[in-house]
Write a structure and sequence with these properties.
- With about 475 residues, the chain is of the alpha/beta class.
- The chain has a domain at about 80-365: TIM Barrel, CATH 3.20.20.
- It contains 15 helices and 18 strands.
- The chain has helices spanning about 105-110, 120-135, 150-165, 185-195, 195-200, 220-230, 255-260, 275-285, 295-300, 305-310, 330-345, 350-360, 360-365, 400-405, 440-455; strands at about 10-15, 25-35, 35-40, 65, 65-70, 75-80, 80-85, 135-145, 165-170, 205-210, 235-240, 265-270, 290, 315, 385-390, 415-420, 420-425, 430.
- The strands form two sheets. Strands 1, 2, 3, 4, 5, 6, 15, 16, 17 and 18 form a ten-stranded mixed beta sheet that branches.
- Strand 11 (about 235-240), helix 7 and strand 12 form a beta-alpha-beta unit.
- Helix 2 runs parallel beside helix 3 (about 150-165) and helix 11 packs across helix 14 (about 400-405).
- The longest helix is centred in the C-terminal third of the chain and has 18 residues, at about 440-455.
- It is globular and about 70 Å long.
- InterPro entries: Amidohydro-rel, Metal-dep_hydrolase_composite, Metal_Hydrolase, MTA/SAH_deaminase.
- Keywords: Hydrolase.
- It holds the Pfam family Amidohydro_1.
- It comes from Nonomuraea roseoviolacea subsp. carminata.
């Protein structure tokens, strides 16, 4: 059960709307009704005279004609962040993947993936989505590359709906599937019948996660592309043809263009080794690119953010996985990106404000949700994050956008609203009455998963005290 939607007024906040027609408002009121942004205007202290009076202990927030007022004094409000590529199923691998021998991402993933049970998929997704809420992420694209059957897909979809967040579920193959084994295209086609729009609450849509022509033969990828396009489903694929080859300078995207596989319905992930011709192919075909800078810099190379933006490629940002050393601290990620790009290219293309747009409105564009979320615009759904600008790391401040990227952190997030529901308040996640804590549930399921894999002989914990660094191997993500 989700927290109920309530009519809300965020009063007197500094608004970074990401809408060029609304702009930044240093002292704004944002009215929310029935899960929708009803109005955005300069703050009116006459209309809400007690909105900025501190609440006495035990007193409920101010209520004005059924509208609960959230005092926005000393806060910055943004649209909720949008993550465009996240393998939620392997959230349970966090703490198992590491630097010691036998604990690299691919070794652990291949060993444990076959041992996932139905509830493991559900609570792995709930863990990732709970961390998303904590980090102000209100939209998540679940790139599921371990769908072992229709029930697994359904478990992920239920988890997403139960989380309260918006997003997309992209249906992929089982982990380490044979190259000549296609996705379950029959179940993909049946998904909408099983999950009609009324069950999805307007918060979730579907796509397909494919391996593409460098991983599968023509009889597989041609059928997958044709099925996706006949169903009107967006396509997503990793672009890492030569991910770990010395001196790689091409992602092979020109071949995909020649085969007719690129386009506005295609999202390419990573593309860290894209050459000039690859980038031109992306721009010509209006193909979207999702970058995961933290995992890319860890195991692949530098994301080509400046080059892609300068070429006019539509770019968005993502976490990739919690199994790697990543977290939902989006502001920390943005800070790393802006510093890396300054050192790597010296270009002025990547600014704090541009990065905030990448993490919000550009992510919404990537997922086709630009009319639904990504900016604080009247008529859009109420997906918002409110941060305390009076915290020590954000004070004093000049441009709030610069302050958030250069010194902001996840601890500054006070309130997260997704589709009009308050999912985090006063820095704490809001759970419905009687709802199990996803963090505790995921930890228990992770322990049981390791025991099953160990009993089957597929998993052996690394020796204690072994600090030798592990090396990432393998072509798949």
């Amino acid at each position: 059960m989700l927290p109920k939607r309530t009519d809300l007024l965020i009063s007197g906040t500094y608004l970074i709307s990401m809408d060029p027609d609304v702009g930044d408002l240093p002292c704004a009121d944002v009215l929310i009704g029935d899960g929708r942004i009803v109005d955005v205007r300069p703050h009116d202290p006459v209309a809400h005279p007690d909105a900025h009076q501190p609440a006495a202990p035990g007193r409920r927030p101010a209520d004005h004609g059924g509208v609960t007022v959230i005092d926005g004094t000393g806060t910055v409000t943004l649209p909720g962040f949008v993550d465009t590529h996240w393998h939620l199923w392997n959230s349970l691998l966090r703490g198992t993947v590491g630097d010691r021998p036998g604990t690299d991402y691919f070794t652990v993933k291949r060993a444990l993936a076959p041992h996932f049970e139905l509830d493991d998929f559900y609570w792995a997704a709930r863990l990732g989505l709970a961390e998303a809420v904590s980090g102000g992420i209100t939209t998540v694209h679940n790139f599921d590359h371990n769908v072992r059957g229709p029930e697994d897909a359904d478990a992920n979809i239920r988890a997403h709906l139960d989380s309260g967040l918006r997003g997309r579920f992209s249906y992929g193959p089982p982990d380490s599937a044979a190259p000549d084994s296609p996705n379950d295209l029959d179940d993909l086609a049946a998904l909408r019948a099983r999950w009609p729009a009324a069950r999805l609450d307007g918060r979730l849509d579907f796509g397909i996660a494919v391996r593409g022509p460098y991983r599968t033969p023509p009889e597989v990828y041609e059928r997958e592309w044709a099925t996706a396009r006949s169903l009107g489903l967006p396509i997503t694929m990793h672009c890492d043809r030569c991910l770990r080859e010395e001196g790689c300078r091409s992602c092979g995207l020109t071949r995909l263009e020649e085969l007719g596989l690129l386009g506005e319905d295609v999202q390419v992930i990573h593309a860290v080794h894209a050459g000039e011709q690859d980038i031109r192919a992306l721009a010509r075909t209006r193909t979207r690119v999702s970058l995961s800078p933290m995992t890319e810099m860890r195991t692949m190379g530098f994301p080509l953010l400046t080059e892609l933006l300068d070429a006019g490629v539509r770019v968005s940002l993502s976490l990739d996985t919690l199994a790697m050393p990543t977290s939902a601290d989006i502001l920390g990620h943005l800070r790393a990106i802006v510093s890396v790009e300054a050192a790597r290219t010296g270009s002025a293309t990547v600014t704090p404000r541009r990065l905030l747009r990448l993490a919000t409105l550009d992510g919404a564009h990537d997922l086709g949700l630009q009319d639904v979320t990504g900016s604080v615009t009247p008529g859009k759904r109420a997906d918002l994050v409110i941060l305390r600008s009076t915290d020590i790391n954000l004070t004093p401040s000049g441009d709030p956008a610069e302050a958030l990227v250069y010194t902001g952190q996840i601890d500054n997030i006070d309130t997260v609203i997704a589709d009009g529901r308050v999912l985090k308040r006063h820095g704490r996640r809001v759970l419905a009455d009687g709802e199990p804590d996803p963090v505790a549930m995921a930890a228990a399921h992770r322990d049981a998963l390791l025991r099953r894999a160990a009993a089957a002989g597929d998993w052996r914990p690394p020796a204690a005290g072994d600090t030798t660094a592990a090396r990432e191997t393998g072509p798949d993500r």
